[in-house]
Amino acid sequence: MKKYAVKNWASNRVVWLVILALGLASILSVMSPYFLNLTNLLSITQFSVIVGLLGLGQTLVILGGGGGIDLSSGAILSLSGVIMALAVAHGLNFVVASVMAAGIGLALGCLNGLLIAYQRLPALIVTLGTQYLFGSIALGITNGTPLSPFPASFADLGQGFLGPIPNQVLFVLVPIAIILWVIMRKTLYGQQLYAVGTNSVAARLVGISVVRMRWSLYAINGLLAGVAAVVMSSWLNTASPTAGSPYVLESITVAVLGGTSIFGGEGSIGGTIMAIVVVTILESGFQLANINSVIQLGTLGLLLILSVMVNERGRMNALSPTRLTRMRRDHEQ
Amino acid sequence: MLREKIGHHSHEILLGVALIVVTIGVDLLRPQFLSPANLQSLLINGSVLAMVSAGMTLVILLAGIDISVGAVMGLVSLFIGWGLLGHWPLLLIALVAVLSGAMFGAINGGIIYLGHVSPIVATLGTMSIWEAAIFALLRGEWLSGLPAKFGPLVVGGVAGVPNIAWIILVIYGAMSVVLTKTDFGRRLYAIGNNGEAARLMGIPIKRTGFWAYVVVGVIVGLAAIVYTTINGNVENQVGANLPLTAIAAVVLGGVDILGGAGSIWGVLMGVAFIVVLENATVLLGIPALYDQAVVGAIILVAVLTNSVRRGRQNYRSMP
After folding, report:
1. Cβ–Cβ of B118/A308 closer than 8 Å?
2. Of chain A residues 268-297, which have a CB less than 8 A from chain B?
3. Is residue A166 part of a domain?
4. Minimal CB count within 10 Å: which of A70, A138, A155, B60?
5. How far is B199 from chain A (nearest CA, A)?
6. What DSSP string describes B49-80?
């Protein structure tokens, strides 16, 4: 009995992530005496909001199975951000513009979901296409230059603090993470999501609408990207047409590092949140050491590959033909 | 019999008609489009895409994908650039290009088949790693003023037809033979079509898949030689849009993105279509910032028509 408990504990992804986070934090505190200071720790959480929102959305999309992935969420962020900035530049109130940005994100996510779930097109190729479509439109309507028409009060959300805690963490990331956690753990929708991700044929046979479920996941992911666009515009006081592009890789890394199986059905919001903590600590370390963001992305790439290798070990062979066939059938049913 | 044959190649025929219509349309609007000089530059500038798409076809046929082709081409271009500036013998440079390409392909194949990582995640990861390596090695600067020592092979030619056009025809011809006449090629189709059945038939899935990624690496290495010759420099962002455009060409050419179906000649037509369309946007004065929107839209239209076609065929074959 006790032996099993230890084994479960050791195989728990969240426990490993906590150990990893503590390890990274101790390396960083050796590197810089300022790191292990509560104010600093709370203030670096501001780097977690964008990757957190996109990572949580990506987790849902991947959990839904059927080869689900969204490569376009970064481009959705960019496009809804610049449309919002253009609207503000033309005199629209920034609160209304923010709601509009979230709505645009939702609409673009719905478009992805429509093509993927209803038309049964492969998610990878659809979102690869829409990534370039949305990203290019964002570049086109801004002529490739960042816009910053925002009034000073708009910066409160992204740059303000309540006590030592950044507003964007307290009022955006934490509430959304809690809502998603509750949805996944306590509601029928969450249970159905796991069912669809684990075995979509069985889910359909018990009366769950697989198509509508997957469609909703892309819609939620788009909405979160739209919210991320608002936070980012406020945080940096600019909307750049390429703002979201580095975050695609990060969002997938965070989801997979958090224990989400790329084949769907396995993973949790809690795991993703722990992965966000690890990636944020890593990122602040890179900034402390003044290392370029391209190198940072390279490290994340390495982390991504390693974490999938660990994820798929001991499970059914990820590339066993059965898995491939299952994914194929998923698309064709 | 004839009807069956037409049905089998309906995608290629449709694409051919579309290609002719677009060509005539652009030529009517901008008469310089079909001038010998423009056609020559289309052939030369489309050559890198044509080569990389041929490689991409292999892995998509077996239900895989390679997002890292652009970054691999960038890294190999960097090695070639050092070789050219260091006056290495040309044969050595070519050897370095092919071998390093093969090595990067083997790394992808190894991660996918030994590490059990799905192809999209594995190559997305290696892409960012190689991009970081390029950045670190270039230190943010460009490698420029590369001597075009491979020039005669690429841009040189007889009667206005650049040699690279023949090289590409040879590559596609060889690929066609490999895909239709050899065990390796047929195994790719079998694995992509139904992995379970392929395994039960005793097809060595991991070995076949691994070598497919190595071949992609070799072809990308060769493409890097062409790229450095045409461009004469290696910049930080080298090859950034290449994976998307190559996937677009392959899917547009009628290859099923889920693997198992498609022909290499269709891919060549897909490449031609994209090259013509990109040139058309330039000639028609559409801002370059929208280039990628065009390619993105092409991908979506291509997968939509593919799926509609496939759906109808499935329906027909039902009892």
Report:
1. yes
2. 292, 294-295, 297
3. yes
4. A155
5. 7
6. HHHHHHHHHHHHHTT---TTHHHHHHHHHHHH
Which residues lie across from B161 on neighbouring strands? B158
The amino acid sitting at B212 is A
Residue pLDDT, tens place only, B138-187? 887 788 878 888 877 777 777 778 888 999 999 999 999 999 999 999 99
Q: Do B129 and A140 touch (CB under 8 A)?
A: no
* Cα separation, B104 vs B219, whole angstroms: 11
Beta bridge partners of B143: B234
Window 121-150 of A: residues touching B by CB (8 A cutoff) are 121-122, 124-126, 128-137, 139-140, 143-144
User: With a cut of 0.85, is the ipTM above it?
Assistant: no
Of A309, A147, A314, A160, the C-alpha closest to B113 is: A309
Work out the minimum CA distance from B10 to partner chain A, whole angstroms: 20
In single-letter form, the type of residue at position A331 comes to H
Distance CA A265, CA A121 (A): 20
- CA distance to partner chain A, nearest, from residue B234 (Å): 17
Residue A98 forms part of a structural domain: yes
CB B122 within 8 A of CB A305: yes
Would the pLDDT of B259 be above 90? no
Tokens read off for A31: 């590197």
Question: What letter would DSSP give residue A166?
Answer: E
Alpha-carbon dihedral angle through residues A189, A194, A200, A206, given to the nearest 10 degrees: -50
Please state which of the ranges A72-76, A195-199, B24-28 shows the lowest mean pLDDT. Answer: B24-28
Identify the three-state secondary structure at position A209: coil
Closest by alpha carbon to A269, among A278, A260, A281? Answer: A260
Instruction: Give the residue extent of every domain in chain B.
Output: 38-239
For residue B209, list chain A residues with Cβ-Cβ distance below 8 A: 319
CA-based nearest distance B132→chain A, Å: 5
* Chain-chain contact of A249 with B112 (C-beta, under 8 angstroms): no
d(CA B31, CA B39): 12
Which residue range(s) make up the domain with A192? 44-332
pLDDT digits (tens, 9 = 90+) for B94-133: 999 999 999 999 999 999 998 888 888 899 899 989 988 9
Q: Which contiguous run of DSSP H or E holds residue B169?
A: helix B163-181
Residue spans of beta strands (DSSP E) within chain A: 161-162, 165-166
